[in-house]
Amino acid sequence: MASIVKLEVLSGAQDDGPLCYLLQIDESYLLLDCGWDETFDMNYIEGIKQHIPKIDAVLITYPDQPHLGALPYLVAKCDLNAPIYATVPVYKMGQMFMYDWVNGHTSVEDFDKFSMDDVDLAFKRVQSVKYNQTILLKGDSGIQFTPLPAGHMIGGAIWKISRAGEDDIVYAVDFNHKKERHLNGCVFDNTIRPHLLITDAYNAMYSQKKRYERDQQLVTSMLTTVRDGGNCLIVIDTAGRVLEIAHLLEQLWSNEEAGLTRYNLVLLSYVASSVVEFAKSQVEWMSDKIMKAFQQSQVNPFNFRYMKLCHSQQELAKVRSPKIVLCSNLDMESGFSRELFLEWCSDRKNTVIITGRSEDRTLGSKLIHIANETAEGRKPRKEISLEVKRRIRIEGAELEAYRRMKAEKEAETARLRLETSRRNARLEMAGDDSDDESDDDETLANAVAVVTGMKSKENVNQPSQNQASQVNGNQENQVQPALELNTHDIMLKWEHQQKSSFFKANKKIYPMFPYVEEKMKWDDYGEIIRPNEYKTEDTIAQIETVEYKRESTDDGEQIMIVEEKVPTKCVRYVQKMEILCKVEFIDFEGRCDGESIKKLLEKTVQPRQIIIVHGTSEATRHLATYIKEKGIVQGRIFTPLVYDIVDATVESHIYQVSLSDALMSTLYFQPVGEAELAWIDAKVMKKAMIGDRRGIDGEKEDEENSSEKESNDVEMQDENETEEERRKRLKKRKQQKALVLDVLPSTNIPSHKAVFVNDPKLSELKQIMQNLGHSAEFSGGVLYINGIISIRRLQQGQFHVEGCASKLYYEIRDYIYQQFAII
Fold it and tell me: What is the mean pLDDT of each run of 10 residues along the chain (823 residues)?
């Protein structure tokens, strides 16, 4: 591959953090995933933000937070304008992941990273693609990419990136080669021996149980719990692996011999109904087995008969126990899984089953550690300290302070509206006949409503949900100012308007009450109706103090639920808890294990170069060492750290240089077809990159940087490197010099032979001669002009002209020269 290929690791290298990588191919930049996690690290976002102006496209592999969690923030807050590509299920299920994530946080805290509107804005920019669909990158780079099935989650993709006439680059992380109930395995048939493979080592040292054993363990744990009168909490993700587990449990419940129908099966999520509906509409993206069964029976496998869908803990409370609840999120740092765990963990009859791993230091990872120690026969420590977040109603003095503040704010708003209406009335009376299309009529109507006392004191004091987060529990008591009725002095205004003026008035102005003529507003369907004008005092008070919700009954009927809107505030505290319930970890992640990854690399993919990302340092070193010992990769093996830049260019003598302005002004370009060529005699210099204040190099530090040679061995970071040494190394990398071509003194420019660039054909010369009025004929592969001059082609780009020295001979030779760009 003759292109310059570099990969900058922005997150997800030698750790289990979110995945994000910037791939450079010459002057084009592709952002591979943009995950985020519960830490909401803004330093990581700043690292992406500085590259946003040059990103040409974003490629998303899976719909969960580790792969696209930062997308709403980057689009809404960082102005990411590049096209975003994902498969149809990743596009739809990704929205469900983000909705559930936002709801999980806003229900217990004031979450300000991004909102539902930001999620909608981000996914409006996503361009949905299908498997094996080739997308050409905008511009003239010639880069194209194709999504291939990756397994693991519905719509998951392996991205094959290529350029015309060059080898492939394959980005494949978290893939699964095994067939599952609802998904087929990954496909590497079209990605054999790529130039570069970017893959992960997350499961390099991990071995899985067989599917039968995992299913049996899950069923046994559930039955043991519910038969003892306890509840079972199964922790799953929002819209990915939940489909596999939900499909399995629905099949178990449909088996009458299992006797499970006496126990309730529940899917608890903020977006449970939407996830199921999307799953019903995406059967063509699922396994061949599901497709075949659907075609034969015409029954959608995700048309659940036994699983109940709940969207709040209030709905869950209506379901009788014992029950089995599938609950999101896997890390248990937010959402229903954390809330339900806090409620159920103190009961010995209950069981918590974790179905997937999460990052270190999360509640989910702590529970997996407890489960593993219990399985090994050790006695784990079951006392943990958890931060509890709650959104509670405001009561007592806080509620009174909130109502006073709200009343004062409404009074101030009414006063400003009244002043605006009076000012507009003065302008109208002064003879302002301009046809203003503003909405002053609505403003005046609201002001008059305040003056005449249409809004009662009870209505003014009613709280609103939107202002709940602004309440401070320690606010001082404030006195509500009284609303004074304003009057108009008609005679004073009339006398003021009768003052003499230099210009003669067009009409007389008589005293009158202030009046603003209403301008009727019309749309395509007639007069615009404002619902506020038809509300009575009681209706206004009722609307401001209640909230309407639509819920579904067990029969599928939609009913309206009226809930009172009460102001709330967010509190948080640390609580020590003893975990008395049973905790188990059953792997339903759907990823390749270590043995399968090694076989795929050795027998199928066989990349020429490999970059190993996303995995612990130990797992990364283990996989890199195995690849080196087996000789799987002929080129280099890279194991970068975060913020490292990997240069995976194959050709050892390809460098990226820029031309100085002084040199550009001295060049003489010759047109060759649609391109232009020029001969350059210049000197190569190193010049400071943007952000480095130093000029031309020559410093010892840069000489040391330039003298560093890359080895074909495993390029691995020393695990004993201190943080200070790492910062120095990164600082040196940022201070590297760029190669620049500068003007060479004229005395040092060597002479060179003229270069003829082009490959004209004899048939083209024949047509040119005939257009000039000469006789041109072929005979034995030789072109004869007027029977006296012959043109013979010797080799590519060279012609032999033979004839008598005459004016015609030199004219023909000049015409042949004109077919070349001579530099």
Answer: 85 92 93 94 92 94 95 94 95 95 91 92 94 90 92 94 86 93 89 91 91 91 92 94 93 84 92 93 92 87 92 91 92 92 92 92 92 88 88 85 88 88 77 47 45 40 38 37 44 48 53 66 73 54 45 49 66 89 93 92 91 93 93 90 89 72 79 76 72 37 40 44 60 62 78 74 79 80 80 73 82 77 71
Whether 672 contacts 757, CB under 8 Å = yes
605: phi then psi, degrees, rounded to nearest 5? -75, -55
Range list for CATH 3.40.50.10890 in the chain: 211-390+573-585
Q: Provide φ and ψ at 801, rounded to 5°.
A: -110, 125
pTM: 0.70
Calpha distance 294→583 (Å, rounded): 36
Q: What is the pLDDT of residue 19?
A: 95
Note the pLDDT of residue 510.
58
**CATH 3.60.15.10 residue window(s) in the chain:** 5-207+589-647
Look-up of token digits 């496998």: 301
Q: Which residues of 133-150 are buried (b: 16+ CB within 10 A; e: fewer)?
A: eebebeeebbbebbbbbb
- What are the C-alpha distances in Å from 284 to residues 129, 280, 287, 289, 304? 14, 10, 8, 11, 18
Q: How far apart are CA 693 and CA 531, in angstroms?
A: 63
At 143, phi and psi to the nearest 5? -85, 135
The number of angstroms, rounded, from the C-alpha of 221 to the middle of its chain's C-alpha atoms is 37
SS3 state at 169:
strand
- Estimate the crossing angle of helix 242-254 against helix 272-280, to 10 degrees: 80
Q: 3-state class of 365 per DSSP?
A: helix
The distance from CA 81 to its chain's CA centroid, rounded to whole angstroms, is: 12
Helical packing angle, 762-771 and 807-817, nearest 10°? 130
Sign of CA dihedral 469, 475, 477, 481: negative
Q: Is the peptide bond before 72 cis (omega within 30 degrees of 0)?
A: no
pLDDT for position 241: 93
* Rounded distance between C-alpha atoms, residue 201 and residue 623, angstroms: 7
Interatomic CA distance for residues 24 and 39, integer angstroms: 28
Q: What are phi and psi of 525, to 5 degrees?
A: -110, 10
Asked if 354 and 366 touch (Cβ cutoff 8 Å), the reply is no
CA separation for the pair 15, 278 (Å, rounded): 33
| Cis bond upstream, residue 322 (ω within 30) | yes
How open is the CA angle 797-800-804, to the nearest 5 degrees?
150
Confidence at residue 464, expressed as pLDDT on a 0 to 100 scale = 40
> Residue 500 class from Cβ within 10 Å (0-12 exposed, 13-18 middle, 19+ buried)?
exposed
According to CATH, the topology of domain 211-390+573-585 is Rossmann fold (3.40.50)
DSSP 175-196: ---S--SS------TT-SS-SE
What does the alpha-carbon distance between residue 323 and residue 345 come to, in Å, rounded to a whole number? 15
Helices 88-106 and 272-280, interaxial angle, to 10°?
170
**Residue 512: predicted pLDDT:** 63
Alpha-carbon distance of 390 to 379, in angstroms, equals 32
Q: Assign domain 756-822 to its CATH architecture.
A: 2-Layer Sandwich (3.30)
Instruction: Return the closest-CA partner of residue 51 out of 13, 80, 27, 77.
Output: 80
C-alpha–C-alpha distance, residues 114 and 76, integer Å: 8
CATH hierarchy code of domain 5-207+589-647: 3.60.15.10
Whole-number Å distance between alpha carbons of 470 and 32: 39
CA 443 – CA 420 distance, rounded (Å): 8
Distance (Å, whole) CA 716 – CA 713: 9
CA dihedral 35, 38, 44, 48 (to 10 degrees): 30
* Separation of alpha carbons 192 and 607, rounded Å: 7
